[in-house]
Amino acid sequence: MTRPTIIAVHGNGGGAFRFARVRPFFADDAPVAFEALTLPGFGGLPLDPECRTLADYAARIESFVTRVNAPRILLGHGIGGSLTLEYLQHFAPSVVGAILHAPVGAQLDTRWFPRLMSSSVTRELGKRLLATPALRPAWKRLFFSDAAPQAFLDQFFAEYGRCEAFGQMFELITADWFAKLKPVALPSALLWGARERVLRLDQAADFRAKLPDAFLEIVPDWDHFPMVEQPEAYARKLMALVERLVAPARAT
Predict the structure, then answer these.
(1) Which of 14, 44, 123, 135 would disulfide-bridge 159, Cβ 3.0–4.6 Å?
(2) Contact at 8 Å (CB) between 240 and 228?
(3) 199 with 103: CB under 8 angstroms?
(4) Are residues 26 and 232 in contact, defined by beta-carbon separation less than 8 angstroms?
(5) What domains sit in the chain, N to C, each tagged with a CATH number?
(6) Above pLDDT 90, what percent of the chain?
């Protein structure tokens, strides 16, 4: 089997830049390769008027995935996990495994933040507040537990202001959408940090119902953005998960 490749799908508000601190640890001689994509409407890219549904976004991911040599493992963080779930509804045979890192989708009808973002006014206001330079010290304390380079964090928060698809994600990723997802039998990992403050660990069981072959991996000292705060440890963990996910394919 050739070297497997992780294809990373970002969360809401940002693009492939969120994985920039991880990339150096996937050198040419590493056992696993790493690619990150930026979807339309994120990371400064214009919104694609043809991306009206999650299936449309899944098709954009598929066009990126199929340009990468197999075997492929799809990694989704936050809403990237939601998009990965949608992708697997349509294109599961194109990958040998999936890693959902603190994904979005479960308990959306009871969580306070999705309910707060239920109107276009609050979605636009929320996006602007997240991008406001004067508020970055507060957001840094809320989102991050450990130190990260200030220049990186400045771009991290600035990307919210350029994210044209920010509000659309709250319209498309709903409790009704999640309820209609069909279970997909695929080697999968549910990855969570024990210090996670954005998406609680108690949601993991809901995702196991959608990925019945998934195992749960909990990392004690991680919060929501270990790819920013602990990039080397994050890379090592991803490589270990990939080894476990591709083992069934190597055995055949």
Answers:
(1) 14
(2) no
(3) yes
(4) no
(5) 5-251 (3.40.50.1820)
(6) 73
